[in-house]
Amino acid sequence: MIHMKGLRAAALAIPLLLAGLPLAPAALADGQNASVTITDSGFNPPQVNIPVGGTVTWTNSGTRVHSATTKPTTPGTPQSPTPATFDSGGIGVGQSFSWNFTIPGTYIYASQPDCLNGNVVAGFTCTGYSVVVGSPSTAVAGAAPSAAPSPSTQAAAPAGTTIQQTATVSITDSGFSPANVAVATGGTGSTAGNVTFVNNGTKIHTATSTVIKLTDPRSAPQVFTTGGLMPGQSKTFTFIYPGTYQFTSDTDCQNGNTSTTFDCSTPYTITIMPGPVGGSVSAVAPPFSGPVVYWRDPAGYDPQSLTIQAGQTVTWMNLGSNVHSVVSDSASMPFDSGGLGVGSVFTATFNNPGTYTYHDSTQPIWTGNQITGYQFSGTIVVQPASS
Questions:
Q1: Strand 268-274 to strand 292-296: parallel, antiparallel, or no bridges (unpaired)?
Q2: Helix, strand, coil share of the chain (percent; to 5)
Q3: Which among 31, 80, 90, 337 is placed 20 to 30 Å from 169, CA to CA?
Q4: pLDDT for res 175
């Protein structure tokens, strides 16, 4: 059984044939450190988890020069894929590069000679690579977010804060009011929490994020800034992922600015909490069960490769900030989600064992006037059902 909106015309849908070894699932670092092998087809394992202060070593086992380089922020989105940047430079055959990670978060990276700055090398998979730093026990990449985060990672609103679906923060010439707000999120674009900043003062102010701590370190933090708000102006931000966002006013408290009237010492926070508005705070389970693949901007499908048993149904959920799709490369298992808006889901049931690849048709790679592949792809490996 396949749920789809209909097959796209196949004239332009030329699948990208990827060679080389299949990518291994996420690896949890042994102790402080982790190792990643670079081949001519990609990084293996694609995701590793290390504690803060741990080191990752990349070794080039391929036949040409590669690199380990953080990917830039996708233009036009408020998200930042990495807490900090790193770049190995060209790693020759048999050479290694190590990087020590001191800032927690998720680092998205790829190989510059193969994937970045306009480079597209056939056979090298360019998406799905990350280093998760901090809280490895709750951040195993490739697994669906936990339905009940542990108390140590659960966002906690300050005492007396009312949980809302939509909150408004007033900016005056003396500070933000209220200083702390808490909004609920259901984990999708349609159930996200919203915070609106309104400048009710007489001067230009901003609301700019500073320190961000997410419940699930794999989630992309929303680094936000209102820009300069004139008196009477406002700006609204939508938050999908649970966590705590601290913020301040650039024009009053940062970049050398020291306002004599604006309170820059108070810790202003937005707490994004999983759960219903007005109810007890608890994580909201997805509106589906079974194997799940999430779309996350700018990384792509998460996990990129999924192994299931024959007869199981896979659900794709768009947690990105743009419309994406799920389109089959296999004539024996045709499916096409059509455009999936933020928070939308699509399902397909795989009854026959085999390996099925798919792609996002919204991100084509053009060579001249022809589509020669797609920037983001995924694989479903279907094993025989256990007796």
A1: unpaired
A2: 5, 40, 55
A3: 80
A4: 95
What's residue 343's pLDDT?
A: 66
User: In this structure, what token pair is assigned to residue 65?
Assistant: 């020069």
Contacts of 265 (CB under 8 A, 6+ apart): none
Rounded to whole angstroms, what are the CA distances from 189 to 121, 175, 219, 282?
34, 30, 14, 18
β 33-39/55-60 pair status = parallel
CA distance 72 to 85: 9
Residue 383 is encoded by which pair of tokens? 């094993």
> Would you tell me how many other CB atoms lie within 10 Å of the CB of residue 208?
20
Greatest alpha-carbon span in the chain: 73
Classify residue 190 by its DSSP letter: G
DSSP SS3 for 197: strand
The residues of the chain scoring below 50 in pLDDT are 1-30, 74-80, 135-154, 277-287
Query: What CA–CA distances, in Å, run from 158 to 197, 242, 244?
Result: 19, 15, 11
Domains and CATH numbers, the chain: 1-15+288-387 (2.60.40.420), 26-141 (2.60.40.420), 163-274 (2.60.40.420)
Per-residue model confidence (pLDDT) at position 17: 31
Q: Which residue has the tokens 């809280």?
A: 135
C-alpha separations of 237 from 83, 164, 380 in Å: 20, 14, 35
> Do you find a cis peptide bond into 274, omega within 30 degrees of 0?
no
**Cis peptide before 178, with omega less than 30 degrees from 0?**
yes
Which residues lie across from 176 on neighbouring strands?
171
Q: Specify the pTM.
A: 0.38
Give 379's contacts (C-beta < 8 A, 6+ positions apart): 22, 304, 305, 306, 355, 356, 357, 358
Continuous H helices in the chain: 112-115, 250-253
Provide the 8-state DSSP code for 337.
-
Q: What is the pLDDT, as a whole number, of residue 2?
A: 46
Whether residue 51 has a cis bond before it, omega within 30° of 0: no
The pLDDT of residue 16: 33
Count of other CB atoms within 10 angstroms of residue 187: 21
Cα distances (Å, whole numbers) of residue 136 to 79, 306, 377:
22, 20, 26
d(CA 339, CA 337): 6
